[in-house]
């Protein structure tokens, strides 16, 4: 008999969720974590990022305070205090995660795990911190790492989201963020709000490739209106240090900064390489993601993968955009249900909501207008742009944009998009409506909740001019 029914490699969102659920159904589970239990989301992703986003948000409230009857004087920044408090909270959460595994009866191995090439009969052998354990099944849940562009000279002078979200450092006077994905937008927004003179550098015209084009345009306009500089259509060539400052040579000329953040995507490859998967014939895609089917089975029976380390069954799904915590958790739980509770669960990928915690926020669920058209849907678009109530007293020029993509024949709402305050909180609710298959008529007969920004989603009666 193997030591474990399931051995999970990686104690992040997907691995922990699967381990706990499997153990709750009586499976004997081991889990290995080479860094800190909690994984990217808890230690160096969503959670520390959101705490810093909250911190950054105060800047706007201080600006509005006077109009709302509060004289706050000139607020003084204590940026490093936020980072220290953030880290204390992350350590607390790390402890909670470890205790959750313990109370579920999951055995935690601290260290880097790898599969040994030889098997013990049918069982796999996993080596971690000088110990070898045998397991009937192995789950690869090792996540991904920031990608540093090949051949970028001096890239070691830049930092990635890992350092920005884990370390304590002074607020840089001048910041350059390279990369147009959601992580670049978020980190640029946050440090800019605290007072760094910030430039976001993009290869294309707009950040957030794959999101609805109007959302991208509206967010870009709002970011620029807030004073964030956006340099479009350029790529970095080299980074050099001159005294305490950094110069980034780009295809559009040099840019100076005190801190450079590389937010140029994430890849599973650094984590899935050297795991011993090749010796077992486990297929990976060009990014290094383990190829799985809709039951999270790899090409090798007994080896599974979930979360960012997998391709989320991209061959049968539209694979992009699923490297998110709730997806990793849902996949981990679905796998445990299928393996140990005879309860096949399907993860609903089509209405995965997602938010970009910039200032302002952008959030979306379902299909963008462009994607809906590419897929051949005959659609009507509804759109509204307005200045939210919060900003009117102060006369601040802030704009919120909301948009619905509706299929003409069925009246189904295929996509909901928003740029504006609390967009993430609002879109989560509408994600339920889209998952339930709501039609535009359902939106129209829903009574508005007044006065909110969210009510605009149920009061858009006129289609946008084509
Ligand atoms: C800056 C940032 C912000 C983000 N913000 C959001 C957000 O707002 N919302 C959202 O939904 N998602 C967000 N994400 C994405 C989210 O963090 C990931 O999708 C999620 O953590 C994936 O979970 P996972 O279990 O697949 O991998 P991870 O959480 O990355 O966990 C993998 C774990 O495996 C460990 N590991 C790797 N190799 C080994 C080995 N050989 N042996 C033992 N352990 C190993 C790693 O140390 C890690 O702890 C963000 C990510 C980043 C980087």
Mean pLDDT: 96
Weakly predicted, low-confidence segments: none
Strand content: 15-25%
Number of strands: 21
Give the fraction of residues assigned to helices. Answer: 25-40%
In short:
The protein is α/β, with parallel strands linked by helices and about 475 residues long. It contains 13 helices and 21 strands.
Which descriptors apply to this entry?
23% strand; 5-stranded antiparallel sheet; alpha/beta; globular; binds flavin-adenine dinucleotide; 7-stranded mixed sheet; single chain; 466 residues
Structure description:
With 466 residues, the chain is an alpha/beta fold. The protein contains 13 helices and 21 strands. Strands 1, 2, 3, 4, 5, 6 and 16 form a seven-stranded mixed beta sheet that branches. A five-stranded antiparallel beta sheet has the order 17-18-21-20-19, with helices on both faces. A four-stranded parallel beta sheet has the order 10-9-8-14. β11 (236-242) and β12 form a beta hairpin. α1 (13-24) packs parallel to α9, α3 (46-65) runs antiparallel to α4 (79-104) and α3 packs across α6. The longest helix is centred in the first third of the chain and has 26 residues, at 79-104. The model has no long low-confidence stretch (mean pLDDT 96). Bound molecules: flavin-adenine dinucleotide. Flavin-adenine dinucleotide binds next to α1, β2, α2, α3 and α5. The site of flavin-adenine dinucleotide has 35 residues, from α1, β2, α2, α3 and α5.
